[in-house]
Amino acid sequence: QVQLVESGGGLVQAGGSLRLSCAASGRTFSSYAMGWFRQAPGKEREFVAAITKNGYNIRYAESVKGRFTISRDNAKNMVYLQMNSLKPEDTAVYHCAADYRPIGSATINEFEYDYWGQGTQVTVSS
Question: Would you give the DSSP letter of residue 112?
Answer without folding.
Answer: G
